[in-house]
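DM between two lab members

TW: hey, do you still have the MFS transporter entry open?
JB: yeah, one sec
JB: this one, 467 aa:
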Amino acid sequence: MTSWELAGARVRPAPAGLVLALACAAQFMVVLDVSVVNVALPAIQSALGFGDAGLPWVAGAYTLAFAGFLLSGGRLADLRGAGRVFTAGIALFSVASLAGGLAADPGLLIAARAGQGLGAAVLAPATLTILTTRFPEGPRRTRALATWTAVSLAGGAAGNLVGGALADLFSWRAILLVNVPIGAVAIVLARRLPAGERRAGRLHLPGAASATAGLALLAYGLMQAGPRGWDDPVTAGALAASVALLAAFALVETRRAAVPLLPPRLLRLRAVSAGNAIMLLTGACFQVPMWYFLTLYMQDVLQLSALRTGLGFLPHTLLTMIVGLRVTPWLMRRLDDRTLIAAGALIAAGGFLWQSTATAASGYAGGVLGPAVLMSAGGGLLNTPLTTTVTSGVPAADAGAASGLMNTAKQAGGALGLAALTAATAGHGGTARALAGACGHAFLIMAVTLGAVAVLSLTLPARRDAA
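TW: and the structure you got?
JB:
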């Protein structure tokens, strides 16, 4: 019995087009809200009276809650049905967006952003689980995952454009409130999805708590390393506690959990274990860090407005979608996935290396547009085969766990990558020249990381779509 069957009788599947549209629309919202507040942070700081130390948590609260609860959200889709979990995630995300848009003080906004992240952690694995259980392995699944992946990548870039436009034309509050009507429509349409099969077992709460707290403390410790130093008691204590909690997670999951969040049999699949290690490293480049440092460069070095900064990301969005939707699926029928992942990583590394040389005198064309061609082409080339690889060969009963693990690797990579890069570039601010140097240092580290991804891709099993 699959998640598209219920109570022993086959449920007529929803139209494939509707399934794909709902999954992609929800995933777009989730990824959009990772970066949508970046260009509006100055306005938020002025309106609500954020201090310099508290402002990063407007973005960080979402990212940490999202990354920390993804394993739980993925396993919940296996136990309670992807359709039910999808609807619950949309509802939670929409309510938290409403609360954030109406927030009157910093604490309420940060709490609402954490609520959004929790809703996103429930929702994102459900979108991927719905696709992998609705579309069988092969070209049809590849096309569906190519669309889902392209939308995911474009959402990160579009967040800056949408955020800049809404902040300039209306208010920073519109950035959050716009999710409410979209979420309401998605909830109505989601009623056409089969609820999915309920399976025996309950979510393992000790494992969920230790994984969430461990990831959150790891990111917090890395974020504190920049301003406080690695030997500061707060930094060291957070990092030590994170290691202890993640070790406890591994122990209770393998020895005491009747229904583990992360079934050990999944990690015995080389595509899953090696693929998610690669996903973590690519997330440390293509998720939050890339958008954060590009925003910093365009706004603080090139002195572009929020709206012009958002428009500056349009080439990234369009090129990523063109390569991801039109070129990559065609190549996947002709080349091994490992070849495409390695080639994409090396092309993107060239773009990040070029971006690392940008100065205040480079202007938009030389400092953003040129590198964008390589960065976006490489990202569009590697992400679909990597997503396909880490979800191939997974039993239907573990589809949600595999989706949760993949999303966790990607989002944790983004959160930890941003924290580590922020720490590595701490103290380089001040003048436009100094800020350009800090951004350049961060992009150079990302280029080296993608070079490592190209090498690690050779450890993946061979895989190619049937013609």
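TW: got it. Residues 48 and 104 are 7 Å apart (CA to CA). The first helix runs from residue 16 to 35.
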